[in-house]
Hints:
Layout: H1 5-29, E1 34-38, E2 43-44, E3 55-61, E4 65-72, E5 78-88, E6 92-97, E7 110-118, E8 123-126, E9 131-133, E10 140-146, E11 149-150, E12 161-167, E13 172-177, E14 180-184, E15 191-196, E16 199-200, E17 203-204, E18 208-217, E19 230-234, E20 237-239, E21 243-247, E22 251-258, E23 263-267, E24 270-274, E25 277-282, E26 288-296, E27 299-308
Parallel strand pairs: 2-9, 11-19, 21-27
Antiparallel strand pairs: 1-3, 3-6, 4-5, 4-7, 7-8, 7-9, 10-12, 12-15, 13-14, 13-18, 16-17, 18-19, 20-22, 22-25, 23-24, 23-26, 26-27
Amino acid sequence: MGRFAPAALVAVLLVATAAAFAYTERLKLTPSPILGTLVPTKVFSPVCECPTDTAQITFRLRRRDRVTATIVDGKGNVVRTLVTDQPEARGTVRLFWDGHDDDGAVVRDGSYRPRVKLALNRRTIVLPNPIRVDTTPPRVELLGISPRLFSPDGDGRADRVVVRYRVNEPAHGILYVDGRRRIVTYRKPLTGTIAWNGKTDGTALPVGVYRLSVDARDPAGNLGVRTPPKPVVLRYIAIGRNRIVAVAGRRFSLLVSADAKRIEWHLAGRTGSAAPGTIHLRAPLRPGRYTLTLREHGHAVRATVIARAAK
Length: 311
């Protein structure tokens, strides 16, 4: 009898292997009780206080079952139980995970998966949708701003300010003007640029000094630390002085700053043009108070000209 024991053991092992193989093949042919799995947010930050601070998990059941859903880490350990033995009608199941474990603490950064246990089906299925938790904010660096003096008048000369920045991970660049968010980039380059044309919501801002800073938000929703603000000057046309005293009929000079090739001037019924810089004009022949108007692409500045009688 002893000499037949090895043969019997081999036969039992063969039968068990065949049975396991047949069961496995039958499982392959049996439609999965879960279908249509969807996790719209692939990466999220539980601490960002933004629309991406929660992960949504959606799947459909072929028939009514009692569902237990958990979140497991890369080693298969349960970190959070979402629902326990919850009866669900056949159809869509929608769950949410806030990135916390069963003790209420934020889980470590890493990849996690939803696991669903179906009591009636006697099946436990790990969904094929990884969810990555990322709580580390991006680091952003301001590389430069050019030009620092601009005039968005549409003449193609210094019409906009270009801000160059760099981040340590793919992230959307954000431009702030005087502390208010104005532009968010669509792309997520490691080194990028943001151009600002001196407008907000399509409305041109008045001339003056504005302070620009940049920040970045990564795909998980984490916001970096905003860079210190840097000033830029928005101006169309500027003059060295607003009050000019000259002898009637005599020439006077005025410093005019503009990026246009020519500026127009109007004084006491006379008009003309000149290149920006120090321009020379003649005071009106009759003593009195006059208004000098200088224009560049529709933008104007004015100065008072006081013509005095010659001694």
